[in-house]
Amino acid sequence: KLELASLKHVMKRRYMLRHVGLELFTKGGLNIFLVLSSTSKRNNLYTKLVALPEVKLQQLDLEEITQKWQNEEISNYDYLTCLNFMADRSYSDIMQYPVMPWIISDYTSNTLDLQNPATFRDLTKPIGALNEERLAFFKVS
C-alpha cells in the first residue's frame, strides 16, 4: 500500500531501452519501479498521478544542487547520484544503471593510502590515456 501524499518524485524512465518505465520515490526512501506495456500508458499514468491533489512532488534544480556541491554542503557521491538521477539513470534497470567515474589507480595494495596522489587516477587524462601503452593503442585505432 502506497500513500500518495508520501510521493517525493515520479520519474518517467526507460526500461530495456523502451520508454515504458515509471519510477516512484517516497519521502520514506521507498522506490517502486513500474513497467507498463506502452509509452502512451506510461505517460497517461504519469499525467494522472501528478495531477492528483494529494501528490506534492519535490522539484530538482540542477543549479541548486551544483551550488550545494560547490559549497561542500553535499558530498561528491551525493552530487553524482543526483546527476545520474536527473539523467534518467536508475538502480532499478541494469541498462540504465548510474555511472560513477573511475578514480582509483591502485588495485594491488592491501590498504589504500588516501593521502598518496599515486593512489588516484590522473583525472586530467581520458581513461584511454592512463599509461603510454593504452595511449599508443588508442592513437593507432
3D structure, described in words:
The chain is α+β, with helices and mostly antiparallel strands and 141 residues long. The protein has four helices and three strands; from the N terminus they run βββαααα. Strands 1-2-3 form a three-stranded antiparallel beta sheet, with helices on one face. The longest helix is centred in the N-terminal third of the chain and has 13 residues. It is elongated and about 60 Å long. The model has no long low-confidence stretch (mean pLDDT 90).
Overall pLDDT: 90
Helix content: 25-40%
What structural class do the secondary elements suggest? alpha+beta
Order of helices and strands: EEEHHHH
Strand fraction? 15-25%
How is the main sheet built? 3 strands, antiparallel
Shape: elongated
State the separation between the terminal residues, measured CA to CA: 54 Å
What is the gyration radius calculated from CA atoms?
Answer: 20 Å
Number of strands: 3
Note the total helix count.
4
- Kindly report the spatial arrangement of strands forming the biggest sheet: 1-2-3
